[in-house]
Amino acid sequence: QVPLVESGGGLVEAGGSLTLSCTASGIEVALSPMAWYRQAPGKQRELVASMTSGGRINYVDSVKGRFTISRDIPKNTIYLQMNRLNPDDTAVYYCWGDANWGQGTQVTVSS
Question: Helices (H), strands (E): how many in the chain?
Fold first, then answer.
């Protein structure tokens, strides 16, 4: 059983939007801190957005006002809504929760 399964990546033009999903198994998104990370080619993995079990949210400065992290407790799923995407957002996006990583999903933004 894979604890975290992501979906929703793809190719989008600059200015477009994508929504990533991460469905958890064996991890309760309502009780665990959850986060989205990304790793661009040649760069270190960086924290993009996080949510505590209590619902407190933080974003890296570069995505503030454009990205939104949320959760659906009945579906045990977290989301990352990404708007006004630009080529610098191109990366593999990873879901993280309770010390587990998802497999990653590629997001490519064309200029």
Answer: 0, 11
d(CA 12, CA 44): 23
CA distances from 61 to 3, 7, 24, 36, 66 (A): 28, 24, 27, 14, 10
| DSSP tag of 61 | G
pLDDT, tens digit (0-9, with 9 covering 90-100), for 87-99 = 999 999 999 999 9
Q: Give the number of other CB atoms < 10 A from CB of residue 37.
A: 21
For 27-55, the pLDDT digits (tens) are 999 999 999 999 999 999 999 999 999 99
List Cα–Cα distances, 97 to 25, 35, 108, in angstroms.
10, 6, 24
The answer to whether the CB of 103 falls within 8 A of the CB of 93 is no
